[in-house]
């Protein structure tokens, strides 16, 4: 705001709380003082060092957490099924990997992130010049709501798990707090992305609204134009109907004209001079000619009328004037699309890691929930799965993050595509050859400039991905549960087999097998043992 | 929202939907539209509460609403109720909230389009016979599936010797099925209306193509090009309206399309599995024949959607068949063509999946895959491990 020419409020003004929080926990390295006074994101060496320090601290703490809680796992290994153990091992570090990806990407992008918001500011100025206002005030509110929800979810998951499922008599159990860090950092980073994306969507919507306004304005203008000689038009209409040959087409089109805002009624009435109607004596084509012919003269006439008493004004009636506006709007649209692509580029790896995390954790959490209900032991890091209620909250939190990003990307993409529709509405309602040429040109341009968000090109961020992912989760879950069943059956079969035969040697051999059970071995035993069972 | 006219067949069907709480708008002939709308909302709220209460009771009660024999069956029964409740929530929530605006706009636009397009016939509208012919697809699906459902239910009641579980389960679950299926026919009705509009546009375009080729080959007239241009522009406007109609439909029904399809799909998957399971273990249970209407409902809806979406490329084809050498006309045609590219008629439930026959293959494929997974699970379901 202290800039010399504050034409528009910079978007970053709304990000203040989020920036301070991100700075504190080490999500962004940019300079704090510059942001506070000038609302810009600039590179900062100190910030970088601070952030690297935080990153190191988190990694050390997290490893400590894994080590101290892994103690139980090692003692439980014998009773755990192999599958559960391997999945637990595989997913131990996924949270950490996600957090490191976020922070390292933020470090690399620290210069470019500032440019992005600068570009958005320039876009805002251009939009302002086209009398297309964007309201940023809702963004601060959105950020606040998102932060609040993050805190609520994180705290709930952390505290309820700590109180219910962690043995808090030991001092070391306080390390459990560290388990919330990766998801929290990740969520903060994603709030930046989500809110910036939302801002882009608002800009697209502002462009669309401006175009729609042009249309409604012109429609009003036309009805006003035809309004004052409405009475005449009805009389003439009646006269014409009696004169012209095929009543069906005539009445049809008349109605259409009225329905579509009475666009041509004036000209229709004017050309009611009958002689003209009877052009060609060819029977077939008479049908098509049932309605009157519009002469170009009439168009000019309708354009001339408003000059006399200007009650309504429509920009669309002046093609040369509107050309500039449409061109500018389309250029801004292109620029926003480019910004969207750049933004997607900055966050592509974090989003990929988030989606991978979401998919794996969702599946694993459900699988562990199943294991817990079967009274099997599960990896200690995933102890929240022991309580169905906490599991539900975890799942809502994780999937909510992923789905919201996907949903927002999809909506933004849709909003950018809507511009073409609005543009065509402008063209059709104005009905001017010059304008048609402009519209056609710009329409092609818009078709070539669509913005689609993707995660490193692995998959697009739209709702169709959701369909695939949910299918994947269900299939994997069924497969995992089946393997788990098979393993459990094998174990029970061995146990019952042992109780049948009291021979000491057999017991020893079987338990040994049982201890180092590999799932393949289990499957083999199941098939062998089932008849005995 | 107040001012639309509809023919008798539509009138009757919409009354049916009003009665089931799925159409929350007053019909045009209603005397007190505001009061009627409020009444409909209260009624919808009551239905929602009733269904939710039943679902809650079934899920929590100790009685045999769900099969208590083994955990896996119980889980599946609970899943059926869960998804049915989701569908019900989606349906009635839409009636209470978003439908007002979108569906109101839908019928307004529909009326406007009908006025522009069918003013050719007698002013009093179509005869009943014509109306029946016009809506035969919807009527066939609506009455066909409904009667089939009733007939199967009667046969089932007559033949099946009831256990307490079966009686309790079917008494509570059948109303859910009925509502969901009726909603599906409501989708079909709206889709079919959209399809008719688009088909009409195509017919008009064909007519225009014939005129243009005639004018081009035999004789042209003064002002013909101007006429052609204007007609193309009118069609552009009609197309834009149909697109808006389609958008209204999509927005008005987005959640319930998803939940209804999901519920029917889950039911088919689960029941197919148990059909095989009961056959394997020689339990005489006839209730799987009740699945037949559900199996018919998904293709009926998807096929209607597909036949609607398939018209758009044909319209583009017809449009470019218009023969002209006049540059304003070709400019107009270009404009229309670009407009079609921008305004895609795409029916999808919240963007998740396009509703066409491809989805049908996907569903069949998914059901088969899950069937193989779960059939493999079958011998292990002795109750000891699950």
UniProtKB/TrEMBL annotation, chain A:
Topology of the protein relative to the lipid bilayer? Multi-pass membrane protein
Sorted alphabetically, the keyword list is: Cell membrane, Membrane, Receptor, Transducer, Transmembrane, Transmembrane helix
Please list every transmembrane segment annotated in the UniProt record, as residue ranges: 49-70, 82-100, 145-163, 175-200, 349-369, 389-408
The protein's superkingdom reads: Eukaryota
Q: Where, subcellularly, is it found? A: Cell membrane
One Gene Ontology MF term? ionotropic taste receptor activity
Query: GO CC terms for this protein?
Result: axon; dendrite; neuronal cell body; plasma membrane
One BP annotation, GO: chemosensory behavior
Q: Which PANTHER family match?
A: GUSTATORY RECEPTOR FOR BITTER TASTE 66A, INVERTEBRATE GUSTATORY RECEPTOR
Q: What does this protein do?
A: Gustatory receptor which mediates acceptance or avoidance behavior, depending on its substrates.
Q: Which family, according to UniProt?
A: Belongs to the insect chemoreceptor superfamily. Gustatory receptor (GR) family.
The protein, known as? Gustatory receptor
Per UniProt, what is the name of the gene that codes for the protein in this document? Dmoj\GI12983
TrEMBL record, chain B:
Pfam families named among the record's database cross-references? 7tm_7
So where does this one cross the membrane? 40-59, 138-159, 165-182, 255-276, 288-305
Q: What is its main location?
A: membrane
InterPro entries in the record: 7TM_chemorcpt (IPR013604)
Task: Name a single GO cellular component.
Answer: plasma membrane
Q: Which family does it belong to?
A: Belongs to the insect chemoreceptor superfamily. Gustatory receptor (GR) family.
Q: What is this protein called?
A: Gustatory receptor
Q: Which organism is it from?
A: Drosophila mojavensis
Which lineage is the organism of this entry classified under, starting from the top rank? Answer: Eukaryota, Metazoa, Ecdysozoa, Arthropoda, Hexapoda
Gene for this protein?
Dmoj\GI14300
């Amino acid at each position: 705001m202290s800039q010399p020419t504050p034409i528009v409020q910079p978007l970053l003004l709304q990000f203040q709380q989020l920036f301070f929080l991100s700075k504190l926990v080490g999500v962004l390295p940019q300079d704090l003082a510059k942001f506070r006074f000038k609302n810009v994101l600039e590179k900062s060496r100190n910030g970088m060092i601070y952030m690297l320090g935080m990153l190191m601290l988190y990694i050390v703490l997290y490893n400590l957490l894994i080590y101290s809680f892994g103690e139980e796992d090692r003692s439980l290994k014998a009773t755990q099924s192999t599958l559960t153990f391997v999945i637990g091992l595989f997913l131990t570090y996924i949270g950490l990997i996600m957090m490191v990806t976020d922070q390292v990407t933020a470090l690399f992008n620290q210069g470019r992130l500032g440019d992005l918001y600068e570009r958005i500011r320039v876009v805002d100025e251009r939009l302002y010049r086209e009398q297309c206002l964007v309201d940023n005030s809702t963004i601060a509110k959105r950020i606040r709501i998102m932060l609040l929800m993050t805190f609520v979810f994180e705290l709930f998951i952390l505290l309820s798990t700590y109180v219910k499922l962690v043995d808090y008599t030991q001092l070391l159990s306080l390390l459990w707090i560290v388990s919330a860090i990766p998801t929290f950092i990740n969520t903060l980073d994603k709030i930046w992305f989500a809110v910036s994306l939302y801002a882009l969507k608002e800009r697209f919507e502002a462009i669309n609204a401006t175009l729609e306004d042009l249309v409604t304005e012109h429609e009003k203008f036309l009805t006003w134009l035809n309004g004052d000689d409405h009475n005449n038009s009805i009389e003439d209409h009646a006269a014409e109907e009696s004169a012209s040959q095929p009543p069906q087409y005539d009445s049809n089109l008349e109605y259409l004209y009225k329905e579509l805002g009475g666009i041509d009624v004036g000209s229709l009435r004017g050309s009611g001079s009958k002689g003209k109607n009877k052009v060609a004596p060819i029977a077939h084509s008479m049908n098509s000619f049932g309605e009157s012919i519009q002469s170009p003269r009439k168009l000019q006439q309708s354009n001339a009328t408003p000059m006399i008493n200007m009650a309504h004004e429509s920009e669309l009636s002046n093609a040369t004037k509107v050309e500039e506006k449409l061109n500018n709007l389309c250029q801004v649209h292109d620029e926003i699309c480019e910004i969207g692509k750049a933004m997607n580029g900055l966050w592509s790896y974090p989003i990929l890691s988030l989606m991978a995390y979401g998919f794996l954790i969702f599946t694993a959490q459900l699988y562990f929930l199943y294991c817990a209900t079967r009274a099997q032991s599960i990896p200690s890091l995933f102890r929240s799965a022991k309580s169905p209620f906490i599991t539900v909250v975890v799942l809502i939190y994780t999937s909510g993050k992923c789905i919201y990003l996907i949903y927002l990307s999809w909506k933004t993409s849709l909003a950018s595509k809507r511009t073409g529709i609005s543009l065509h509405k402008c063209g059709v309602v104005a009905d001017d050859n010059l304008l048609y040429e402009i519209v056609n040109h710009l329409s092609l341009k818009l078709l070539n400039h669509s913005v689609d968000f993707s995660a490193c090109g692995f998959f697009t961020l739209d709702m169709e991905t959701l369909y695939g992912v949910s299918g994947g989760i269900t299939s994997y879950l069924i497969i995992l549960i089946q393997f788990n069943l098979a393993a459990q059956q094998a174990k029970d079969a061995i146990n019952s087999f042992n109780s049948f035969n009291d021979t000491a040697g057999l017991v020893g051999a079987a338990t040994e097998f049982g201890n180092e059970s590999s799932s393949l071995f289990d499957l083999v035993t199941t098939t062998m043992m089932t008849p005995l069972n | 929202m107040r001012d639309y006219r509809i023919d008798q067949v539509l009138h009757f069907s919409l009354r049916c939907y009003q009665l089931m709480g799925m159409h929350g708008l007053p019909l045009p002939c209603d005397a007190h539209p505001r009061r009627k709308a409020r009444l409909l909302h209260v009624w919808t709220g009551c239905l929602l509460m009733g269904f939710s209460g039943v679902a809650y009771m079934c899920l929590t009660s100790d009685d045999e609403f769900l099969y208590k024999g083994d955990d896996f069956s119980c889980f599946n029964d609970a899943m059926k109720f869960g998804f049915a409740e989701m569908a019900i929530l989606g349906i009635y929530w839409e009636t209470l909230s978003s439908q007002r605006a979108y569906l109101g706009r839908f019928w307004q636009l529909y009326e406007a389009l009908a006025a522009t397009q069918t003013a050719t016939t007698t002013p009093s509208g179509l005869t009943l016979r014509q109306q029946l012919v016009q809506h035969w697809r919807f009527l066939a699906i609506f009455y066909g599936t409904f009667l089939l459902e009733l007939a199967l239910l009667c046969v089932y009641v007559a033949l099946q010797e009831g256990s307490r579980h079966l009686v309790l389960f079917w008494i509570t679950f059948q109303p859910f099925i009925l509502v969901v299926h009726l909603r599906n026919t409501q989708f079909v009705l709206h889709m079919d209306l959209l399809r008719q509009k688009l088909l009409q546009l195509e017919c008009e375009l064909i007519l225009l193509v014939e005129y243009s080729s005639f004018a081009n080959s035999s004789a042209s007239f003064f002002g013909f090009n101007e006429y052609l241009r204007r007609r193309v522009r009118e069609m552009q406007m009609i197309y834009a309206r149909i697109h808006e109609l389609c958008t209204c439909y999509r927005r008005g029904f987005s959640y319930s399309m998803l939940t209804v399809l999901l519920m029917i799909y889950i039911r088919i998957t689960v029941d197919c599995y148990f059909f095989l399971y009961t056959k394997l273990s020689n339990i005489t249970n006839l209730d799987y024949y009740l699945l037949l209407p559900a199996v018919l409902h998904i293709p009926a809806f998807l096929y209607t959607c597909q036949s609607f979406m398939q018209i758009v490329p044909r319209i583009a084809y017809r449009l470019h068949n218009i023969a002209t050498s006049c540059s304003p006309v070709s400019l107009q045609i270009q404009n229309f063509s670009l407009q079609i590219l921008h305004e895609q008629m795409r029916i999808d439930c919240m963007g998740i999946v396009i509703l066409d026959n491809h989805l049908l293959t996907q569903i069949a494929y998914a059901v088969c895959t899950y069937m193989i997974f779960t059939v493999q699970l079958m011998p292990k379901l002795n109750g000891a491990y699950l």
